[in-house]
Amino acid sequence: MGAMTERSVLVVLFDGLQSLDLTGPLEVFAGAARQAGDPDAYRIRTASLDGGPVRTSSGLTLVPDGALGDAATPHTLVVPGGRGTRTPDPGLIDWLREHGPDAGRLVSVCTGALLLAGAGLLDGRRATTHWSVCDHLARTYPAVDVDPDPIFVRDGRVSTSAGVTSGIDLALVLVEEDLGRDVALAVARHLVVFLRRPGNQAQFSVQLAAQTALRDPLREVQSWISEHPGEDLSVESLAGRARLSPRHFARAFHAETGVTPGRYVERVRIEHARRLLEDSADGVEEISRACGYGTPEAMRRAFVKALGTAPAEYRRRFRPQHAG
């Protein structure tokens, strides 16, 4: 492999890859070069193991620029995911093991993390992947610190992203780092996506992440919590709605949803507050009351604990610039 080229991007192709894992980041990098007015801002190449065409999981045939063995050491090496990551060509894992450490930045999208882990490139690092295979990744590669919640994780020169479209979020972060916020924002607007979802944005809404209770009274309480985050959501109050004793309610709720009532309420309030910060012009004090926090300071503490950022900073980073 040749000498490192400034901001070259090499995307690994293989049979069974998810096409959006490839095209999402590729469009971000290509769009950034156009927005920057510099065709060489990112020099993008695709390569398969033998240089031959590959067929994506949706049946799309892709013709790469060449073979991996002929590719120069890239500034950014992108490894997409897809069904093909489950039984990868051993030669691809060998190539990643040998050449992955030489790349300036390693990026995986979705289940591409399985390929990086298989090559030992995630050992001792924090990483994420698509929610459906986080447990598999953790069990198969115990040396990897798997975090199933965020949409992307950055650990030094290695970045891993969650399902499919989160590869766009991660690519926008890299563009902002390389070429500045204005270029990244212009690309995000062109692609009609937010600049940018923070990496610790959860892969799931609360309703998807938690199990739905089997019994009607508990299920109705779950729904009521989501629709009334500003109300009294103490265990005593919720137990009264379910016509159960507080102790029985707390036990049953945890048994059927997998989380305690307090944790569920906490997640609903955070999610509701995030939505208001993103979509409304309300002030932080008004939002804190609407979400049951009482005071802006209480909401700030909850945000810092759950997301690692304060509400005002979350709004600045995630709210579309034209909103309000």
Explained architecture:
- By secondary structure, this protein is of the alpha/beta class.
- The protein contains 14 helices and 11 strands.
- The strands form 3 sheets. A 7-stranded mixed β-sheet has the order 5-2-1-6-7-11-10, sandwiched between helices. Strands 3-4 form a two-stranded antiparallel ribbon. Strands 8-9 form a two-stranded parallel sheet.
- Strand 8, helix 4 and strand 9 form a beta-alpha-beta unit.
- Helix 1 packs parallel to helix 5, helix 1 crosses helix 6 and helix 9 crosses helix 10.
- The longest helix is centred in the C-terminal third of the chain and has 19 residues.
Descriptive terms for the model:
single chain, 324 residues, two-stranded antiparallel ribbon, 14 helices
Write the layout of secondary structure elements.
Elements: E1 8-13, H1 19-36, E2 43-48, E3 54-55, E4 61-62, E5 66-67, E6 76-79, H2 90-99, E7 105-108, H3 112-118, E8 126-127, H4 134-140, E9 145-146, E10 152-155, E11 158-161, H5 166-179, H6 181-191, H7 206-209, H8 216-227, H9 235-242, H10 246-257, H11 261-279, H12 284-290, H13 296-307, H14 311-318
Parallel strand pairs: 1-2, 1-6, 2-5, 6-7, 7-11, 8-9
Antiparallel strand pairs: 3-4, 10-11
Computed CA radius of gyration, to the nearest angstrom: 22 Å
Biggest β-sheet: count, sense, barrel? 7 strands, mixed
Please identify the oligomeric state: single chain
State the helix count: 14
Overall helicity: 40-55%
Distance between the termini: 51 Å
Low-confidence stretches are 1-5, 203-209
For the residues shown, what is the average pLDDT? Answer: 87
Order of helices and strands: EHEEEEEHEHEHEEEHHHHHHHHHH
Shape: globular
Structural class: alpha/beta
Task: Classify the beta-strand content into a percent band.
Answer: 5-15%
Strand order of the largest sheet: 5-2-1-6-7-11-10
* Number of DSSP strand runs: 11
